[in-house]
Amino acid sequence: MSGEKTEKPTAKKLREARKEGRVARTNDLSTWLGVLAASFVIPLTASRATDKIRQLSIDSLAEISDPQPADAARLLRTGLGDIASLVGPLSLSIIAVAVMSTASQGGLPIATKKLKPDFKHLNPIGGLKRMFGPQGAWEATKSLLKVTILALVVWHAAQGIKPLLGHGNVLPLSGVLRIVASTALTAMREAALAGLVLAGADFAIVKKRIDKGLRMSKQDIKDEHKQADGDPQMKGKIKQRQMEMSRNRMMAEVQSADVVIVNPTHVAVALRYDPAKGAPRVVAKGKGVVAAKIRALAEEHRVPMVQDVPLARALHKAVDIGGEVPPELYNAVARVLAFIMSLKARGSAAGVHRVPVVAARR
């Protein structure tokens, strides 16, 4: 059936979904990648921090023995700079990992539509459906899996350092601390790797759900194409309206024409001649009903009409509205205009006329 949503979304549908923020992504990916990155950056930061703390302690003891305001200010600046140099790389690495992980899940779209208030989000029924539906069930399962993963990793790490905490331990405290730190880092990496696997599963489920929600019916696709191309009926009405407006403008030009050349009933071409603008121009033309309308307007506004079958046909075929008379028709048009001018000089230009043969020969 055409109403079943079995078709893949179109490019336009995907763009709209992107604006709405409906893109497959999981926050767990950036979280676990951040934990994994931190497990490698923290040892480097800790090593540098040990050296800087040692040097800062030495400088502080020296300052206490002989306190000077300038030296104290310098020591404060040095301490703040050391803190920034230690925290900066760790923070930047975590931010970089978060940005890259987000970009890898469909880029960094700006969901502009989410900035607008939507009262549908306040609908309690929709919230209950999400809570107790398949999405809510998966979220609960995912939380349970996270807790299970962390519990297993912590238990495994504890089993590794348990012998070191017994009475039979002969290692010095520094050695125990190094082993505990190494075990903690290993636990972080194991948890991060397990979490990445879970994030991959979460991404696949979210993508499947969103893809299903974006599917379209065949009728949806047809409607979208119709909207993109324009409704044929509406386009036809617009075109008809444009033609009517153009025809009305053309008819308005008839009353200011110098002459209308007719054929005698099928074709009508209105000419206007302004010596300052060059050759005579066709200001209106038409066949059939349009020609009859031009003749009626010419009669109403006392514009002279001349019956000349070959010239009327030639002008209608060769010249567009607003165009100049071509050179090959100059002589014929000039004879007609000269004849009309002579009629106007005698005060009898209105009506339908024929160019006398004698006048044509002249």
From TrEMBL:
Keywords in alphabetical order: Cell projection, Cilium, Flagellum
Superkingdom assignment: Bacteria
Entry keyword annotation includes Signal: no
Coiled coil: none
GO BP terms, alphabetized: protein secretion
Region (Disordered): 1-20
GO cellular component term of the entry, any: plasma membrane
Protein name: Flagellar biosynthetic protein FlhB
